[in-house]
Amino acid sequence: MDNVRPANYLARDLVIDQFDFYDSSQEVSLGTLREAIQDTRVLLRSVSDTQFPYFTLGAMILAQLEGDWTAAEQAASQLISDEQEARGFQPYSIPTDFLFGLTVYDQLNHDWRRMIAGLRNPNHHGETAMIIEALRQTSSQRNLL
């Protein structure tokens, strides 16, 4: 019997070490990891895995770690679209259980909520603000924060 890891766990695995140990003074680029996250997102989306938006959140987190605010804002916009696509919702509808409602695999949510708590919006980007609020609201409603 094969042991298949849920997609949101894989996304977490790819991001968590960089989140916990990234030091911008070391001049280490996250470019390859960011590409892998994006490629995996595309692959999972193509097979209709409803957890593919976790990779978009991972891309947003990694972009923020590097201070690439343009990429982080693009990921925020994409995350709204991805989450809606995964649910089959119409545009501009963010449910109260944003993202976390896409899976029952929640044993590693403590790591996601730590990373969510670190999200910032220095450019006051509207969709980034929506994402941060929706994720924090979902986390607090589910007693995740």
Verbal overview:
This protein is mainly alpha-helical. It has one domain (7-141). Helices cover 61% and strands 0% of the residues. It is built from 6 helices and no strands. The radius of gyration is 14 Å and the shape is globular. The protein starts with 6 loop residues before the first helix and ends with a helix. The model has no long low-confidence stretch (mean pLDDT 87).
What are the main properties of this structure?
145 residues
Mean pLDDT reading? 87
Proportion of helical residues: 55-70%
The total of helices stands at 6
| SSE sequence, one letter per element | HHHHHH
Main pleated-sheet profile: none
Describe this structure in a few short sentences:
The protein has 145 residues and is mainly alpha-helical.
Secondary structure: elements and pairs:
Elements: H1 7-21, H2 31-46, H3 53-66, H4 69-87, H5 109-117, H6 126-141
Helix pairs in contact: 1-3, 2-3, 3-4
